[in-house]
C-alpha cells in the first residue's frame, strides 16, 4: 500500500506564513496608511494633493536610496541633510551671482552647468566621508556627524544665514530654466519623479546586476571575509558615500528650484527620514541586507504618513514622535523577521536530514 503522506501536498506552516507577512510588511503598511488617510484626511485623494505628495516622496526617496547603499555596506550617513542645504545654497549663489573673479568680472553659468557644479559639491563631500572612514579609520557615525556640522556651517556662511531669493535666473546666461527642475514636467510627469525613476532604476541595476552591487552586500555582511576574498573594501565604501552625496545634491537642486529660493537650514533632519524609509523598507541596520524597491515603498510610507498627518492638523511635535515610533517598530519587526527566517531555515534543514 502506497504511503499517502507522500502524495499529500504540504500546507504552509505558521512560520512560513508569518515570514511572508513580515517580508511584505512595508507594502502592507503603505496600503493601511493610505487607506486610513483616504477616509480621514480631507481632500487626501485629490489630484493636486497626489501630485504634491509624490514630489515630497521623491525628495525622501532620493536620500533613502543613497542611504540604503550606505547601510547595506555596514555604515551610516548623517550628513545628507546638511549636504542638501549646502547644495541648495550653492545652486542659489550660482544662479544669482555666478563666480566673482575680481576686477568687476564674474563667471556666469547656464542651468546645466549649475547642476553639474552642485552635483560635484555633493560628490566631493561624499568623497570626504569615504576618505575619513577608509583612510583615517574614523567610525562612520563620527565622520558623517562631523561633515554634517561642517556642511551646515558652510551653508550658513555662504549667505550669513540669509536666504537666496528669487532664483528665476537670467535668460542672457541660460539660467532662466532653473525653475523647470522643480516645476517642469516630462510627458505630464513632474521632473523630480522622472529623475527618481531614473535614479531608482540605476540603483536597482547596480545592486542586483553588477559586481559592485554584490561587493556592497558582501562588505556589509562580513567586511573581513569580503577583503580576504579579494573585494576592494575601501573602494566599495568610497562608492556608497559618493553615491549618497550625489543623491543629496539632487535633492538640494530640486528643493531650491521648487521654492525658487535657497535657505541654509533646508534639509534639517532629512537624514532621519532617509534612515526611516530605508529601515522600513527592509534594510538591516547591521548591514548586508536591503532592497532598493523596498526602500522606495518605505519612502512612500513616510511621505504619505507625513502629508496625511499635516492634512489632519496633527501637531508637528506629534509627527516627530510618530516617525520615531515608526523607526523603532521597523527595527523590532526586522529583528523578528531574522528570527523567523532562522527558524524556517532550521526546520528545512531538519526535514532534509530526516
Automatic annotation (TrEMBL):
GO terms for molecular function: transmembrane transporter activity. It comes from the Bacteria. Pfam families: BPD_transp_2. It is a multi-pass membrane protein. One of its GO terms (cellular component) is plasma membrane. Keywords: Cell inner membrane, Cell membrane, Membrane, Transmembrane, Transmembrane helix, Transport. The chain crosses the membrane at residues 20-45, 57-76, 82-107, 114-133, 186-207, 238-255, 292-310. CDD domains: TM_PBP1_transp_AraH_like. It is found in: Cell membrane. PANTHER family: ABC TRANSPORTER PERMEASE PROTEIN YPHD-RELATED (PTHR32196:SF21), ABC TRANSPORTER PERMEASE PROTEIN YPHD-RELATED-RELATED (PTHR32196). This is Erythritol ABC transporter membrane protein. It comes from Yoonia rosea. The lineage of its organism: Bacteria, Pseudomonadati, Pseudomonadota, Alphaproteobacteria, Rhodobacterales.
